[in-house]
Request: fold
Amino acid sequence: MNNTLIIGLSAGGSFLLSFLLANHPKHNNIYANRWLGVFMLAFAMSLLEIFIYDLGLQNQYPLTISFLELSRFVAAPALYLSVRYFTAPTKTFTWRTFAHFLLFLVLFLFQLPRMLTGNNLEIADKTLESIIFTFFAAAFPIQIIIYWTLSYRKLYRHRQNIRQLASSTESIDLSWLTNLLYVVIVIVITWLHLAFFNPSGGASYASVLYFLSVYFLSYYSLKQKEVYAYPEQTLKELDIILNKDPDNKAEKQKRLSDTQINYLKVKLENLMEEEKVYLNNELSLPLLSHKMGISIHELSFLINDEYGENFFSFVNRYRVEKAKSLLLNNAARLTMLDIAFQAGFNSKTSFNTSFKKLTGLSPTEFQRSAQA
Reply:
């Protein structure tokens, strides 16, 4: 049996979080958070359904139960739309968005007679009836699989995209959303396992899982900063860059001559080596393009085509070289965190990851090897 108290707390927390996301206190990622709020509302209604059954009140509220059963078909499309808005530089709303809820509408119309009269819709042809009910039974897991896959692909592409424009990605890589997708799969598998096998004590573990999931999502969703915190015109340029064909060389030929490329390479390397702009841990493609006096698009092509790197790799290569110098001449006995910050990294994790990727050694291993 479920732990009714934990289910009740989880449902209440989910309703509260859905309200907070719809009216985010920081006003960050507004559209994305509102769709995430819709997802949490659907999740809260599913928990409320479990709560009502645990209290044995389902016969007293048949209309409520019918509606709560339908709410689960809103969850997957709402989560996908949230991911889509989180990962898009420009946010545009169209009425076609509601096409994602067509399945919910069909099921709602099919259930409407029972919700109004208390009687199921009668279908004379038993074969047709069997087909329809089989479809409805399979619709939820199929919907989950489709939207989960679409969401995962969006987040994977996002992690590649932000390396084209940011030198520090930890705060905008949306790793918590990827973890949420894994949690969703675990929850769905748990639901199906309980429905078909009803293992002893399984429901109690499921209750704890729901509770932890709600508060995990509460912490990370409210903590998330604006993913694309740039002016509207900059966002339009970034959108073009992130959706361009990487194999199209014609754009470089139209924008930059060989003379311009050589001049810009000298200017860029001067900014990196003499002015050491990479020490700014918030350095971004738009900020560096402003210092260069060229468009974001031109700087992106310069780094991608002339250096064969994305912006993230290009900047962090200079930071790693600075860190190596600090490690080899550490007379002040700086800690690894101090070295990371002085080299331009904004966290020890990103420092360790970038350093090992470029040198094959951790910072500590590199220092010991040099001393030896």
In short: Residues 126-161 form the longest helix (36 residues).
